[in-house]
Amino acid sequence: QVQLVQSGGGVVQPGRSLRLSCAASGFLVSTYVMHWVRQAPGKGPEWVALMSSDGITKYYADSVKGRFTISRDNSKNTLYLQMDSLRHEDTAVYYCAKDRDQNLIHYFGDWGLGTLVTVSS
Amino acid sequence: DIVMTQSPDSLAVSLGERATINCKSSQSVLHTSNNKNYLAWYQQKSGQPPKLLIYWASIRESGVPDRFSGSGSGTDFTLTISSLQAEDVAVYYCQHFYTNPVTFGRGTRLEIK
């Protein structure tokens, strides 16, 4: 049974950093494309970043490029999102998500419960 | 980026009645190489993550009740709930996966009349 257990959210001042974690069980993060998706209050989901199963390819939304970094630790079966230079507009619930299938097609069959990141002075 | 536009923003339907939600993409998400529409639908209940309902525009995810169906092609898509149940109260989102970045619609809030 697939589980994605998230941690690391909280309140942070603009310009500061935060790291989110997503511990996976029931599958290996090294065998699926993994994603971070965020959802601002009252808005639709917004895709943020992905990492390929081989760990080589990483894509980012233009809104976070150069500030956020996706990574993983295969030994811990855990996905991370390092968020630097945070802005007010980064305030959202952040979800980790897994491609439903191993076909490089990005629709999301499994989601974490989400972690709230609030950027506020 | 492909823009996904949903309508209506909110919808109130009586129990047992049909609910129809529309989604329009700013460009076609039909891949001519495989004749597949790269479109998914999600249901999000309050305080929960989105749940995949439909992919490839019309394929129901395992465990999703058959009152949920997806249709459409190219740029125009529809999610239909044939007989609304109380547990279907939620916000529904469409998402394309035709290119990177994938994008979502702004959602349709479904309520009981």
Question: How would you describe what is shown here?
Answer:
The complex is a heterodimer of chains A (121) and B (113). In chain A, the strands form two sheets. In chain A, strands 2, 4, 5, 6, 9, 10 and 11 form a seven-stranded mixed sheet that branches. In chain A, strands 1-3-8-7 form a four-stranded antiparallel sheet, with no helix packed on it. The mean pLDDT of chain A is 96. In chain A, strand 5 and strand 6 form a beta hairpin. Chain A has no helices and eleven strands. Chain A is an all-beta fold. Chain B has 113 residues and is mostly beta strands. Helix content of chain B is 0%, strand content 51%. Chain B contains no helices and 13 strands. In chain B, strands 2, 6, 7, 8, 11, 12 and 13 form a seven-stranded mixed sheet that branches. Chain B has a four-stranded antiparallel sheet with strand order 1-3-10-9, with no helix packed on it. In chain B, strand 6 and strand 7 form a beta hairpin. The relative contact order of chain B is 0.33.
